[in-house]
Amino acid sequence: MEVTLCNPNIGAEISGVDLANCDEQTFAEIYQAFLTYKVIFFRDQFLSPESQLKLAARFGELEEPHPFFPHVSTHPQVSEIETTPGNPPGKSYWHTDMTWQSAPPKCSVLCAQHLPDKGGDTIWVSMEAVYASLPETLKQKLAGKTATHAVHGFAGSRFDDVNGDGESRVEGISKGMVAVKHPVVAKHPETGHPTLYINEQFTRWLDDPIMEKEGITLDRLFDYAHNASFQVRFRWETGSVAIWDNRCTQHFAVTDYGDKPRKLHRVVVKGTQPEPFESSR
């Protein structure tokens, strides 16, 4: 097994392994790389839905089928992220998966099925590196604060449909999803590292109104995550696999390929409720 670092802050490409058949020692090394590099990439894996589910289950208990995404007909926990002619992707947002849940996912396993000739990259950012870059005075002001997260961005998208009465399926499902509060600075449950736990798609507002009066806004915090030195961009190939730590990253799908056919399979692993990071200082 060979691990090639993508950059000092996030990402590593791993070769010399067969994800569908790796032994316990190899998987332990993969898992450590997952914790260390936050997103890990593999080439030429060509996982079946069964193999993808088995691989994801080694990381933890699997999430239920996604409430909005279509899925493989025989495997409802394998979501299909697909673009087809006449059905292009909509607006893309930087996001951390499903933070509208009280216990957002731990990680995701994404496998490329087929791709356009060019375009369609995905970018990840280390929110641990983003937090570390913040001025100390700002870190102090964020300590102990919370933000509200809620479903946003699926209504009217390619994952939505409208019934005979003109009602959005996504909006109908979303009505039962109550907004949740998460710490703005969360502690990674395994490494203990602090992360700036906000994302552009699902974080709706900071809960302390005084913060905005002090010039601390979500947009200002999001800007720190736009620093390319904290990011890694992955060029997909058929058979490529990406596994990322949802507890300390955001990601962004680059929708520069129009409606050219593109399909990826995603399986998500359950996480725990985020806990606030408490500095020892």
From TrEMBL:
One Pfam family cited in the UniProt record for this chain: TauD
Entry keywords, A to Z: Dioxygenase, Iron, Metal-binding, Oxidoreductase
SUPFAM superfamilies per record: Clavaminate synthase-like (SSF51197)
Domain annotation TauD/TfdA-like: ranges: 7-267
GO molecular function (one): metal ion binding
Gene Ontology CC terms: cytoplasm
Entries under InterPro entries matching the protein: AtsK-like, TauD-like_sf, TauD/TfdA-like
Family the UniProt entry places it in: Belongs to the TfdA dioxygenase family.
PANTHER family: ALPHA-KETOGLUTARATE-DEPENDENT SULFONATE DIOXYGENASE
Protein name, entry field: Taurine catabolism dioxygenase
Species: Grimontia sedimenti
